[in-house]
Every structure is written in C-alpha cells, then in structure tokens.
Amino acid sequence: MANKITDMSKIRKVIKFYCNGKSKLFISSYLSLSRNTVKKYISLFEVLELSFELIDQKTDAELELLFSQTSVEAISPRLQTLYDFFPKMERELKKVGVTVQHMWEQYIAVNPDGYRTSQFHYHYNIWGKRVNPVMHMNHKAGDKMYVDYAGKTLSIIDIDTGEVKEVQFFVAILGASQYTYAEASMSQQKENFVDSVENAMRFFEGTPAAIVPDNLKSAVIKSSRFEPTINETLADLAEHYETTILPARAYRPRDKSLVEGAVKILYRRIYVTIKETKFFSLEELNQQIWDLLDSHNNRKLTGRPYSRSSR
Question: Which GO terms describe its molecular function (predicted)?
Fold first, then answer.
C-alpha cells in the first residue's frame, strides 16, 4: 500500500534516535526503513514540535492517529517566514509584558509585506494547535510556582532502632522555564509543607507572583471556586514574601498539569534511581535527590536546544 502506516514501535525508535543526534542514514540502516520513510516521520515530528517524552507516553493508537492526521504541506515562502517567526514569538511571550500585538509589530517591521494582525493571530492559533495538541498554557517568567507532593513515598532508616520511616516527596516547578525543585520531608503537615515551599523559593532565588498548590489540607482549609480559605501559616508566608496563594481549582486538571507532569518525570529520573537505596537521615536522602535534580535541570529538553536551567 502506498500510504501504509509504519509500525508505531519503529516510529518511536526513529524519533528517539533523532533526538539523540543520530543521522537519518544511521536510523534508516539500523531500523531497516527507507530513507524517505525516516525523513517523513522526522518531518512530522518537527511539525508537531512535541517532546519525545510526550510522544513516548502515547499509546500506539494515539500515536497512529497523531501522525496520520498530520501532514507536511507545501506552503508559500511568505507563510513559511511567518511560521519561522513563531518559535521565537512563543519564547518571547513568556516574558512579562510581552503581548501578541507587540510581537506582530516586531514581525511587520522586518516583513512589511507580511500578514496583517487578524491573519497573524489566525495563523499563530493554527500553529499553536499543531505544535501543542496536548493541553497547553502560556506561562510568564516569574509568574507562578506550582507545588505538589508525589503520590509515592520514599523512606529513611532510624540508625538507632532500625525502624523504616516513610517520608514525602515534594516537587515545585516554575511555569515558564520548567525549572524544578524537589526534596524529601517528614510529612505533608503544614509546618513541613511551608518549610518546603520556602526552600523551593530559596532554591529558585526569587519569589514568584503566585504559588499554586493543590487543594491539600496543609494549604487550603476550605475549598471554594471563588474564595478558598488558605491555611493561616501559608498565608503568613505569602504575606512575608509579598506573593499570593492561588490554589488549583477542584476538578480542573489543567491548573496543575505542569507539576503533575514534573512529578512523573522525576519518578523516572530520581525516584526509580534511589528507591532501593538505604538512607539513614533526611539530609542524606535529600543530598542524593539534589544531585540527581541538578542533572535533570541541566539536561536538554527533548527536541529543544536548551535545558531548564539555561531557560
């Protein structure tokens, strides 16, 4: 068949090899695929601009649907120039005060024969849906810090009694850069939670405009769509650091999708690595977490030329 879909496991390997810097010739030879097939799926992957991590999380059925519905269409040089401008625009929009209108003014100054504002907005929306088909939110730098606990716990051993104590795995992430902080703490009680939030801000060396926790009791005494009641200790911390608390809305998974995604990644890069190791103090456990966290933050984002730290 002329347009037969290639086996999804091979597509995953094509994308993985490509993200790891392998040449198309190597990929074609190693996977016994034609060079045109390899070029086709790499081109589709570039059009989608998804990370390999997101691609790898999809089922074969979802992946087949994604690639079968995406095509690399021939577009005019004028439109291609516009599309080439959008990745830079996406990065600039994360900066405080930058708007789509500001970016259009930059674009039209360099391309006086380019698209007017209505078409500019239209094509940016189309481009955004193609490169971010999964739930996507635009984050401003320094705007929000998302915090949550992982569902799975870690453990330490009391050196005197040999008792194994479960400890919590706290994660914080900045919206725009995805720069991540993590630590183990003795509990999810408000004192430990507030300490972890403060440690995260010290790690980030700054205070976000807002802190977004899940609706855990350490943060929110009473949930409400309009006026949730914030734990007094957390409210005092927010007042001290001149920030605000914006709890994620109940039944609104998009509000906390970023930190939940970070938890999943850290499960693979930190939790799995240390879960079988014996630790005899919280300090010892956290030192190991922070060593692995440093590697995570300095690792280039899949399919991107930058890391969380550099961003």
Answer: nucleic acid binding
